[in-house]
Amino acid sequence: MTTRVQSLVVSLFFTMLCAGALADEAEDAAQAEARKQEAFRAGVASTVNDLNYGFFDSFIGAVNQQDMLDRIYGLRLIDQRIKRQFEGSLEGSWPGMIKGGIVPSRGVPEEGLRFTLLGVESRGDLGRAVVRVDLDNFQFNYFDLDLRLDQRENVVIVDWINFLDGQAFSQDVGLYLVLAQPSKSALRKLLDFSNVSERELFQFGELMKAARDRNLAKFNELRDSIEPRFQRQRIVVESGVRVAKDVRRRRDMVAALGLMAEHFPEEPLYSLMLLDYYFPQKKFEEGIAALQRLRDKLDVEDAAMDARMSAALLASGNAAEAVAYADLALGREPGLELGWLSALNARNAVGDFAGTVAALTRLEGEFDYDLSPETLEKSRVFGQLMASEEFAAWLESR
């Protein structure tokens, strides 16, 4: 064998060794990635399952306190005395503070909350999950969880966006600390423009203190008297909604949501909140667009959102598409009450009485509705249904 041939053989041998090593490394990397993805899925699923039993310890334990403090403080100008007081009380207040970030301040009691894991995605040690919370009166909230794995591949909840609040948990707590004792510099940093006079800054500070103290009357008075450029500020618009919601003044909340719709109509973080403005005002096209923005932001399949979309489309006059969305909702989650209600109304609107009767059966059988003729005749829309052969047959077998 010549020297040249020997060199080629040796080179080929080493090439094969390298290729084998690279293949082994790729397989190891794929297995590691699959293991981490399963760790994310299993960890989040376990935590959500605990929440449905009223156990919050796993969620609270998944939040690294120091990491969260770093996010809360960030670059915010928080008074040092306030920061020391906050840190001094953490031992006793931490569990309640975290729990308060996922349990609504009003609405259904804790034992009535239902959490649904809609999706988990990850790459390497970083991930996200979306969780739906079922509230009273067919209302829903969503949490977008920012996740990571620690060195033992346990899931750590880095932060989360609460869509009924329109902001991240760390932002909510951070703003609370800033406003506890706001300096002029801290107030200036809350604005997105810099040319502010001392008088304007004082007025803005008083406005933010009114929001902090949940003094709705004073907040509204100050907001309406301050310069328009301040009224358009994100923090002012957000605060108006939150203060009215906190003190349970629905009329003021709807008015504040109207300002939010005026100044930030395309903001996906506000989409869920704005549904409480668009639908009661019969602004169905705007409501449908808001639902679409929310769906795009969450980027998950959700039966509740499909059912709400069905109801909105039906109200806007698009019955055929309303049926499609109702069917989609029931395909994703056959046990969703709102899905069957949407199906009932949408199918009835297009004259699908067999499908309507199927919805009647499920609603009475599973959700304890009384859908007798005496109940249905209170609504004009069921007249043709009640005259149909399908309804007569259903009554006989009911």
Could you describe the 3D structure shown?
- The protein contains 21 helices and 5 strands.
- The chain has 398 residues and is α+β, with helices and mostly antiparallel strands.
- Strands 1-2-3-4-5 form a 5-stranded antiparallel sheet.
- Helices cover 64% and strands 10% of the residues.
- Helix 13 runs antiparallel to helix 14 (284-298).
- It is globular.
| Total number of beta strands | 5
Fraction of residues in β-strands:
5-15%
Task: Estimate the helix proportion, in percent.
Answer: 55-70%
Number of helices: 21
The description of the largest β-sheet is: 5 strands, antiparallel
The stretches of 5 or more residues where confidence is low (pLDDT under 50) are: none
The secondary structure category is alpha+beta
Strand order of the largest sheet: 1-2-3-4-5
Straight-line N-to-C gap: 93 Å
The general outline is: globular
Tags for this model:
398 residues; alpha+beta; five-stranded antiparallel β-sheet; 21 helices
Compose a concise summary of this entry.
This protein is an alpha+beta fold. The chain has 21 helices and 5 strands. Helix content is 64%, strand content 10%.
